[in-house]
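To the wet lab folks,

You asked to see what we're planning to order before we commit. Fair enough. Below is the target structure as tokens, and below that is the sequence we designed to fit it. If anything looks off to you, flag it before the synthesis order goes out.
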């Protein structure tokens, strides 16, 4: 399974999640399918760091498209969030913090201090209110940290799923959270079939798709509400 195919699956499942948020306006199977998306993008970010020839350019691209996407993202959030929840930074900033956490870990010679620095950047995801918060940044960091462990990608994804849905399954048990937990682990299966090949080049496909689709869904929400 190539990087291109993983990206396409990520975009389709992300679109499903956002259709649920913007058009259905209540939790549905669209959102369950959407749990597949973020771990795939987190994994792609790890691979992007490993194979990039220009780290600064990659960071700059994430930051630029983060700025471009912010207003469309906040308009999209306004459909189902209120108050300060709208003031959340979009997924590009989550990916950027994950990239910086990996970079700091790599550049600090003392591995313990490198892990501490990486975890500090993960926690900053809460301070900067990025999408998926500290857990999202941590997933990217763990994907890199455990990349050489045979089941490292599964372990990283499992930790992410436990942190995100474990408390709900314990204190608010319902089929909703069980399904979300299970589907969050599905990307581990897909990643296991990753063949380390790029596939067709899609230099800016995801970068353009993200702000475009949330803006289109924002407009469609006033015309085609499914609820």
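Sequence we intend to order:
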């Amino acid at each position: 399974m190539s990087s291109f195919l993983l990206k396409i699956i990520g975009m389709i499942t992300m679109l499903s999640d956002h259709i649920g948020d913007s058009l259905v306006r209540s939790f549905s199977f669209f959102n369950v399918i959407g749990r597949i998306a973020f771990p795939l993008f987190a994994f792609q970010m790890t691979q992007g760091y490993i194979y990039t020839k220009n780290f600064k350019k990659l960071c700059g691209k994430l930051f630029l498209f983060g700025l471009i996407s912010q207003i469309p993202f906040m308009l999209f959030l306004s459909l189902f969030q209120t108050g300060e929840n709208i003031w959340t930074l979009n997924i590009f900033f989550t990916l950027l913090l994950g990239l910086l956490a990996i970079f700091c870990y790599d550049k600090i010679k003392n591995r313990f201090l490198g892990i501490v620095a990486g975890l500090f950047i993960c926690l900053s995801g809460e301070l900067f209110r990025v999408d998926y918060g500290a857990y999202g940044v941590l997933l990217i960091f763990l994907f890199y940290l455990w990349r050489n462990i045979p089941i490292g990608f599964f372990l990283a994804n499992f930790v992410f799923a436990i942190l995100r849905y474990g408390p709900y399954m314990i204190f608010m048990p319902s089929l909703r959270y069980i399904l979300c937990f299970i589907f969050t682990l599905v990307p581990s299966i897909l990643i296991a079939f990753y063949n380390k090949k790029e596939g067709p080049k899609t230099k800016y496909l995801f970068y353009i798709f993200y702000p475009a689709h949330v803006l289109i869904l924002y407009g469609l929400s006033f015309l085609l509400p499914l609820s």
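Structural context that might help your review: The mean pLDDT is 94. The chain has ten helices and no strands.

Thanks,
Computational group
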